[in-house]
Specification:
The complex is a heterodimer of chains A (158) and B (134). Chain A has 158 residues and is mainly β. Chain A has one helix at residues 24-40, and strands at 57-61, 65-71, 80-85, 88-95, 105-109, 114-121, 126-136, 139-146. Chain A has a 4-stranded antiparallel beta sheet with strand order 1-2-8-7, with no helix packed on it. Chain B has 134 residues and is mainly beta. In chain B, a hairpin with a 3-residue loop joins strand 3 (32-36) and strand 4. Chain B is elongated. The termini of chain B are far apart. Classes of the chains: A mainly beta (158), B mainly beta (134).
């Protein structure tokens, strides 16, 4: 008897464990689709994790510090106010755009001006003495030292 | 423009690349303001995170191309705690309908904002034409 193949699938092997249940093929397809979906939306911000408050922040950490970063193009460092209160960090300020004279014609206006204030709670205790902020090419970086108790410790085995 | 307006978060717009890029990575469209007066066209583009040396401005056949390369600004040993925005290159093209003095283009980059001054060629400057009685 000739074993027929459908859709280029390997010839049915009913004794194999994969064909035990009728929805095997569906499950496999779903897995494949999920894989693709996660590849295509592989961007880390997906999933509605944005707070909706300007500016968007990225927080990273290393052994000793937290780094809070925000893109604030066109804002001078003296126009930004950064406050640290316990574990809560607030970044506020105002973005002013160059005032152009009335005689110009606008073709595009995509850049916004306005006030902003963003608060964020740092995930662990910090050392309020060890904080610095800098603005480079429109990117603000606030470096906050971790408190001693929040730093990872290596535990030696005796 | 209302001074007291609250700034809103804008999702960075991914650029539609004309061709596939050889280097992996995200490419965004910078937000721009474009305005003109009688003598020049001014273009302002937000490109945070780009170093001055990594900006390329190219004007060819009436097409202005802005590119900004971003070097990763995070150290290797940092791990993510919270991520709300992506880091990527900037790319945008414009077709200029008017003749531009190529040699007199001025570009200035400060605080993550590129300001491009494109002077119009004299003939594109509007003239007032007086009609004489004949």
């Amino acid at each position: 008897m000739i074993t027929r193949r459908m859709f280029n699938l390997p010839a049915a092997n009913f004794s194999g464990s994969n064909w035990n249940h009728p929805f095997y093929e569906m499950d496999a397809l779903k897995k494949e689709m999920d894989k693709w979906a996660s590849l295509m939306s592989g961007r880390r911000t997906f999933g509605g994790r944005n707070s909706g408050v300007f500016p968007a922040l990225n927080i990273t950490e290393d052994k000793d510090n937290y780094y809070i970063r925000a893109e604030l193009p066109g804002i001078k460092s003296e126009e930004i106010d950064i406050q640290l209160n316990g574990r809560s960090l607030t970044i506020s300020g105002e973005r002013k755009l160059e005032q152009s004279s009335d005689s110009v014609k606008y073709h595009r206006r995509e850049r916004d001006a306005g006030k902003f204030s963003r608060g964020v709670m740092l995930p662990n205790d910090i050392n309020g003495e060890n904080v610095n902020a800098q603005m480079v090419n429109g990117v603000l970086t606030v470096k906050v030292g971790k408190a001693e108790i929040a730093k990872p410790k290596r535990i030696a085995i005796n | 423009m209302a001074e007291t307006k609250e700034l809103q978060v804008k999702e960075k717009q991914e650029a539609a690349a004309p061709a596939e890029h050889t280097k992996p990575g995200l490419i965004f469209t910078p937000a721009v303001d474009i305005y003109e007066n009688d003598n020049e066209i001014i273009l302002l583009a937000d490109m945070p995170g780009v170093a001055t040396d990594d900006i390329t401005i190219d004007l060819k056949d009436g097409v202005l191309t802005l590119t900004g390369d971003v070097k990763p600004w995070e150290n290797d040993d940092e791990s993510d705690v919270m991520v709300e925005f992506e880091i990527g290159k900037y790319y945008r093209q414009f077709t200029l309908s008017e003749a531009i003095h190529q040699d007199k283009i001025k570009a200035n980059f400060s605080d993550g904002v590129l300001k491009l001054t494109l002077p119009k060629v004299a003939k594109a400057v509007p003239r007032k034409i007086t009609v004489n009685n004949g």
